[in-house]
Every structure is written in structure tokens, then in C-alpha cells.
Amino acid sequence: MSRILGGIGYALSPTVIWFYACTLLDVVNGTAFIVSRSMATKLVTESNMGKVNSLFGVIEALSALACTPAYSAFYRVTIEIFPGAFNILGVIVTLPAILIYIWLYIRRDVRA
């Protein structure tokens, strides 16, 4: 949720001060990788922890490798029209992950 609020705030900031103030909304965004890794390790046996952590490392590296050029290209295309469009793109890309977390949370409550 921090990423969504921060991304929307960055994209729609009318002044530089508002832009920097949106950092307060986006401050928790960096913990998403930690939480995901923690949740995944709770779902596997101890003997598979190394595999899960390796998978997360590979996915994080590959996503950075793919997303950085994609975001840069998107920014170059939209800078004249709407400079904050890449922030909105980040929000849109984050939405499926949030929906999956919510679905898993609801499913966990149903099983309990």
C-alpha cells in the first residue's frame, strides 16, 4: 500500500515540496522484498529454505535487469505527455501482488 500511495503522490505532485513529502508515503515500500521472503520461508520445510532464498535472489536480479530498461523506455515515451506516468505504471504493476497477498490472507483465514 505504501508503494501505491507513494507512486500516486509522486505522479501527481504539484510542487517539489509535495514530491519530497510523498517520500513519507513511500517509506515502507522497501520492506516488500523482506516480507515476501519471510512469508515464503514460512511455507516450506527447513531443507528447502536455501532453494526458496535462491529463487528469490534470482527473481530479484532478473526483475531489476528487465524492469530498469522497460521503465526507462516508458519514461522516455511519456515524459512530454505526463512525466509521472512511470510512477502510475509502478502502481499498476504492484496491484496484482497486493491482490495476491489479500487472496492468500483470506484463504488462510478460511482454512483456520
Automatic annotation (TrEMBL):
Molecular function per GO: transmembrane transporter activity
Transmembrane segments: 17-35, 55-75, 81-106
Primary location: membrane
Extent of the signal sequence: none
Taxonomic lineage from the root: Eukaryota, Metazoa, Ecdysozoa, Arthropoda, Hexapoda
UniProt keyword annotations, A-Z: Membrane, Transmembrane, Transmembrane helix
Membrane topology type: Multi-pass membrane protein
Gene3D superfamilies: MFS general substrate transporter like domains
InterPro entries the UniProt entry points to: MFS_trans_sf
GO cellular component, one term: membrane
The name this protein goes by in its record: Uncharacterized protein
Subcellular location: Membrane
The organism of origin for this protein: Photinus pyralis
